[in-house]
Amino acid sequence: MGRTVRHLFIAGCVLLWLIPLYLLVVNALTPAAEYTGKPEWTVQGFDLVENLRTAWNVAGIGDSFQASLLYAVVCGLAAVLIAAMAAFAVVVLPIPRPAFWFWLIYSGTLFPLQMFLAPLFGLYADANLYDTRLGLMLIYAAWAVPFAFFLIRNQMTTMPPELTEAALIDGASFRRIFWRIHVPLMKAGLAAAFIFQFTAVWNDLLLGITLSRSPDVQPVMAALTTLNNAYSSTGPPVILAGALIVSAPTLLLFLVFRGLFLRGVTASAR
Amino acid sequence: MTEIVTPAQRAAKPVRVRRRVPTRTPHQAARAARGNGRLGGPLAALPWALPAFAFVGVLLVYPFFRSVYDSFFEDNGFTSTFTGFDNYARLADDPIFGRSLLNTLMWVAGTLLLPVLAGLLIAVATHRTRFGGIAQLVIVLPYAISAAATAVLWNFMLTSDGAVNQVLRGVGLDSWAQTWLLEWPQNTLSMIVASTWQATGLNVVLFAIGLRAIPQDTVEAAQLDGASGWRMFRYITLPQLRAVTVVVVGMAIVNSLKAFDMIWILTKGGPSRSSETLALSMYREAFRLFHIGYGSAIALVLSVIVVASSWMYLRRQMPEADARTANAKA
C-alpha cells in the first residue's frame, strides 16, 4: 500500500467512525424544545445538563442506572469469586473427574440465551422472582460464572503446582492457600475477568426485558429501549442523552483500564 | 511503536497461552497415587466447586433441558399438551421462520464480510504508523459502548429524516435517500452496517495483536527476497495471521447468529416481521405471542446451529490442533 493511499484510507475510516459519535454528542447538546426534527450538524446550544436530567428523572434512566450498577458490580464480583473457587477446585485440588466439573460449569456459555429464557421465566414466575432485583442478580451471577470460570481456570493452569505443595508442607489450609497465594498472584487476571463480566452484565438487554418490568428493577439497556420507543414524545436529544448516560460506565472503564479491558474482551475471542 | 503498544502487548499474552484439557495434571496424579490424606480426601474440593455448580445447574443447565422438553408441547401459557415433533414440523411450513432463517444467514455473511475485512484492512494500514494507535483507539471506541446505545444512535441516523438521508441529499444523491428501516432487505443490510460500525474495533485490536506477533526476521527475509506491497501481504502477513483469523471469524459467526439487541431496538423485527432473525423470532413467539413450545423449538434450532457451526468451523480450521482446542472455544 502506498503511503498516501494508506494515510487517506486511515483518515477516511477515522472520519467514518467519528461522524456518528460527533452527531451523538452534538444532538445530545441541543435543547430538546428547539429540536427541529432533523439532525443538527452544528452545536445549536448547550442544554446537555437539562437533557441528561430529563433522561435521568423523567424517563427513569436514573433508577435503572442504580439498579444496573448494583447488578454489574455485585454479580461481577460474585461471579469472579465463585468462578475462582471452582477453578481452584478443578485445577489445584484433587477433585474426582475434573473434566466433568469443567464441562458442567463451562456448558453455561455454549448456548444462546434464548435457550434458557422461557423456562427461566416460568421458574421466576413460580418462585416470585419475576420483576425483583434479587431475581435479576441471581441470573446475572449464574450467567457470568461459566465464562469467568473459563478465563480464570486457563490462567490458574499456568501456575506452578510447587507453590501449592510448598504451602501444604508448611501446613497451610486450603482457604489460606486460596486467599494468600492464588488470589494475590492472579490479581490482574481476576480484574480482567471482572471487567469482562461487568461489561457483559451492564450491556445485557435480553434478560432485562424478559425478567423485569418496573423501572427500579429494569437494567439500563431495557430502560433505554423504553425511552427509544417513546421516540416522538421525548425527542431525540433526550434519547441520545440517555444513550450517553448508559455508555458512560463502560466507556470510562475502557479509557481508564484500557489494558485490562482489552485483555478481558480479547480473552473472549479464544 | 506508539503508546498503545504496551497494554496491547500484555493483551497479546493470554491469546497465546496453551490450553490444556481439564484432566489431572501430573502432580495431581502422582499425589493420588501416593494416596496420602494430606489433602483431606477427594471430597474436600467439593465445597469449592459447589457454589458454581449450584448457580449454573439451577439457572442454566436445568432451564436448558427444560427448554428441550418444552419444545415437544403445544403451550399457550395456560394449558399445554404433548404434540411430539409438531412444533418442528410447523417450522418447515412457516414463511416467517424461512425469512428469519434467511435474515440470520444474511447476518452471518454480512458480519463475516464487513467487520472482518474492515478490521483486517484497518489493522494492516495502521500497523507501525505514527498515528496508528490513535486511529485504532477511535475505531475501538464504539466497541466500549453497548449494542443498545449503538442501536439508539443509528436509529437516529437511519430514520427517514435522519442523518444518512440528509448527507445523501446534501451531496445530490436524492434518489439514494430512502426509508432504510422500513423495507426488506435494506433494513437488514442497514443494521448489519450499524453493527459493523460497532464491532470492527475489536477485530482491529485482535488483528493488531496478531500483526505484532509476526517475527521481524520473517518480514526481513521476505524483504531480502524482494517481496513488498501486495506480495508481502499475500504470502507473509496473511498466512502469519491465520491463528487470529480463525478466532475472529469463529467469533463473528457465533455473534451474528445471536444478534438481538441491535435488531430489537432498530426495527423490533418489523415491519411485519420482515427483519427478524432466529434470535428475535424465538423471543416474539415465546414472550409476545405466548407460543412457548414453538419458541423453544426455534431456540433449539438456533442452539444447534450455533454449536454445530462453531464446532465444524474450528474442526476444519485447526485439524492439527485436535479437538481440545476446538472445545476450548468460547
From TrEMBL, chain A:
Gene3D superfamilies: MetI-like. Coiled coil: none annotated. InterPro entries: MetI-like, MetI-like_sf. Residues 65-257 form the ABC transmembrane type-1 domain. The chain crosses the membrane at residues 7-29, 69-93, 100-122, 134-152, 185-202, 238-261. The keyword Transmembrane helix applies. The keyword Lipoprotein does not apply. It is a multi-pass membrane protein. Its main location: membrane. PANTHER family: ABC TRANSPORTER PERMEASE PROTEIN MG189-RELATED, ABC TRANSPORTER PERMEASE PROTEIN MG189-RELATED-RELATED. Belongs to the binding-protein-dependent transport system permease family. This is Carbohydrate ABC transporter permease.
Automatic annotation (TrEMBL), chain B:
Keywords: Cell membrane, Membrane, Transmembrane, Transmembrane helix, Transport. The chain crosses the membrane at residues 43-65, 105-125, 137-157, 189-211, 241-266, 286-314. It holds the Pfam family BPD_transp_1. Residues 23-35 have a biased composition (Low complexity). Its main location: membrane. It is found in: Cell membrane. Belongs to the binding-protein-dependent transport system permease family. This is Sugar ABC transporter permease. It comes from Streptomyces durmitorensis. The lineage of its organism: Bacteria, Bacillati, Actinomycetota, Actinomycetes, Kitasatosporales.
